[in-house]
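Chapter review: from sequence to fold.
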Amino acid sequence: MTSKTKKKPKGKAKHSFFGKLWRFIFKWGLIIALLGSLPFAGWVWWLDQKVVARFEGQKWQVPSEVYSAPIYLKSGAPWKKADLEALLQETGYRFGRNSQKVGWAARSRTKVSAHLRSYVDYSGYHPSERRIFSFEDGKLSIHSLNGDPVAQASIEPQRIGFLYGGNTERREILSYEDIPQPLIDILTTVEDRDFYHHWGISPTGIARAAWVNATHGSRRQGGSTLTQQLVKNMFLSSERTYTRKLTEVVMSLLLEYHYSKQAIITAYMNEVYLAQVGSEGLHGFAAASQHFFGRPLKELNIDEFALLVGMVKGPSIYNPERHPKRALARRNTVLAVLKDQGRLTNSDYHVLVKQPIRLADKHKERSVYGDYLDLVSMQLSRDFDQKTLATENLRIYTGVDIRAQQAASQAMRRQVGAISRSRKLKGLQGAMVVTDRTNGQVRAIVGSSDKYYSGFNRALGAVRPIGSLVKPPLYMSALATGKFTWWSPIEDKRIRFDIAGKIWAPENYDRTTHGVVHLYEAMAKSYNLATINLAQQVGFDRVGDTLRQLGVKRPFTMHPAMALGALELSPFEVARLYQPIASRGQSSELGVVLAVMDQKDHLIKRFDRSTSVPFTEALLAVTLDGMTKVPEIGTARAAQHRFPGLTFAAKTGTSNELRDSWFEGITGDYASTVWLGMDDNEPMNITGATGAQKVWIDFTEHTNPRSLPETLPSGAARYNVLNSSFEIAADRCDDKESLAFVLGTQPQSSSSCIWPF
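The token string follows.
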């Protein structure tokens, strides 16, 4: 039997060979692909972590914002209609036919109406309100819409600057609810029409942009989505490479995967770069609205939204402050896109393109408030580190009064310029500190007579002899003994002092003596010889103690020349010295920062000051009342002539060789300290009366002054006293003077001024 051998088919063997080869290639190809993709996967994972960390953590380092005090409008206060209109315009209110919308005002021949904005500060929430203001006999009268009288209205605190530290970005953080819907609609229509439909990148958007740009012959639309623009601004540099573009695409997809469209559009609104203002980058639509229009974002019109959106494509090219024609053309291009996409009717479009660009009338914040911000920074440095202030977006509320600050700055520039020209003084400088007479809040600080912030704050740094500004505290030392009153006689005679072997012989400014005078005359007319005689009787050490108790913290050694103003203080220190007298004991320390809050309206710190003064209200009130004689009969008569119906206290001061010109003026609202001098301490040809007093007069003319209160506190009273004898004078008496006394020191007898037969 023979066996048969079965042969393998040739084709089958070939198929088996290629199958094994394919499986080998597939297997190892897959392994190699997987191994090769690990770096890419790791890179994507790293980008994912970066995106999440940036959005979940603090997104921006935002400097702290500094705000003024609210502006309180009180019925019965002296106001001019033009002044209120100017104030409303300064604070960003727009005038139209009516005041129905928040942030709008209207005016007639005799009245002004305004829809005042709501605001939140450390004292709580203040709702918006519509008020009607009328001006009867120079007094403000406030009413509601239904005619009910209103005691007070307030204009919201104004942002006066930032505390940057090392940061150079300016922005305001918006929540989604804060963003006006018209702005979202304009932005998405112009920059990313498919925003709500894509996943971070839009191929159709790229194609459409290319077509629109080609047909119009200019770049009217971009291919990048808003998400891609946000990624580029937040995470990437401006370099143009394929790697950077791939990174942008991947991060855009990741951003869309993790976050909602609302979160992305909100981030974009806060992040977008819109201008360079000096050394500061202006980021976000809210900050741009305040900078360019001086109003909150929600109060802008369609054409103003269109201008801001148009700037996205070229912040420097389309900056309306630098290139108004380009900006106008770009805004009109945006309006044309809105019309083409059915967002604007033809009639609305033709109205809007005819609107001019109306930018806010701005001064440089550091030029007006720079000196005040120095003081804010100095106070906060004790409680907050620089990094926190520069990055945490705190809201810092101060006591600055924007009307007082601007009036003080302008008065200083005007008068120093006029004095320099008339007196041929080159390099004359000045400083001014204005405080609330009652509570001691610093309302204004001027550190120089320069137009713009100079960097040297003389209100804090110019430490100079205060001259005769030392006299009211000295006379108060005498009143405090109970042995002297404003009527008490004192001899104005020459006196010599042997000080360490050297003879010091003071003189009056007019180089003459005036015999026996009353204390109120000696102080009002600034007699040096009477003052030094009084100081010797009271005791120089006692005078020094009074100065320290009133607030002089700078170390000094009391000697006779100190009684005539050799004491060296800065204008800020002089203001603190006078505050207890001006407030009649209601405040002693000066206040700058009131409170610090975060962006969620949580109070972080409130600043309270000591108000304790080691003198009675009666003594301080009597001292202040005596200072009203200075404008009445003394060296401040020029100020009284300018304000004949105003009751105010004052004191002029001049240092040796006319090196320093001082003035202290106290009205019902403000206590103001003014200094003029040369930085090199050279002599001048002006006194306190012919120099600093002029600055105070100018300032007071622009702040609607109120008189000091007529009533005196418990323990003090005012009497008509005969000049010839220490007796209370009857009404029929001629030679009499109205003087304030601490009870118990007043005359105990009276005169009828009838000759006895």
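Two observations follow directly from the output. The chain is about 40% helix and 20% strand. Residues 3 and 9 are 19 Å apart (CA to CA).
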